[in-house]
Amino acid sequence: MLTIPHQHRPSTRHAVRATLSMSLMAAVLASGLALSGAAPVAAQDGPPPPPGDIPPPPSDEGLTDISVSSPRFVTGRAVAKSGAVPIQLRWKARNAAGISHYQVQLMRYPGPTYSDIKLGRSDATSTIRKLPLGTDLAIRVRAWDGFGNESAWEVGQRFRVVKSGGRYAGNWRTKRDRGAIGRSIRQTGSKAAKATFATDALSIAVVAQRSPRMGKAKISVGGSSRTVQLRANRTSNRLVVHQRALAGGHSATMTVRRARGTVNVDAFLAIVER
Question: What span, in angstroms and rounded, lies between the C-alpha atoms of 218 and 106?
Fold first, then answer.
């Protein structure tokens, strides 16, 4: 008689118990993810980046928004004996990550040729430089944000600083003065006398001498006027005593009259767009 060996089969009770255990583990894991708010982690190709080696965002996120303002004269600053005029140059960039630093270059025409302008602070948005008369100039600016992204260059207006003697009406006398821009100044003590300068410009200014012998001048541009003190304890030559920035390079006339005592005019200056 042939005897068949008995084969062991798992009981139905054991199979049900194993199925319940696996279901319970899956439920616990799902509830833990739901409570923590974590999302399943997707598989990545290759090893993860090392700590701190996170690439910066794209370089065009707002850094192209650089504005370069029109140059203007600076009241109270003196023109150099060489004729170089103090000019304020201004720029601005905006970025959500903040601006780390700027690079500013002076452009000289024809060419142009470029030279770096050294800034007092790397994130400065203005500087004053003495620029030559009669030369076509511009500045260009680029910026870096807090992530190290670099912007494109933004070029400002091309301009030239020019000098004019103006037009004189009434009783003015010419006095030779080696400290003046043109080696002479015009003086008057007459209320009827006036000096005028009309031009299309980005900024206009009048240069005069301050000294113990001078009085006060009334300087008008358009419909507004201002009284400027020319009297001082010591003599200062070639001073920009008044300036006016003109929006969009409008036409304007500057007029100088005597308000009190003796007044003088060395020269009129204009920054004209080229």
Answer: 35
Asked if 168 and 185 touch (Cβ cutoff 8 Å), the reply is no
Give the helix/strand (H/E) hosting 140. strand 137-145
| Both tokens assigned to 254 | 């500057």
Report residue 97's pLDDT band, with 50, 70 and 90 as the boundaries.
confident
> Radius of gyration (Cα) for the chain, nearest Å?
37
Question: What is this structure's pTM?
Answer: 0.76
CB 134 within 8 A of CB 160: yes
What the chain holds in terms of domains, given with CATH numbers, is 66-161 (2.60.40.10), 163-273 (2.60.120.260)
Q: Are 246 and 199 in contact (CB under 8 A)?
A: no
Q: How far apart are CA 204 and CA 273, in angstroms?
A: 12
- Characterize the bridge pairing of strands 154-155 and 137-145: antiparallel
User: pLDDT tens digit string along 1-11?
Assistant: 434 344 444 44
Please identify which residue in the block is written with the tokens 């194993």: 18
DSSP class of residue 121 equals S
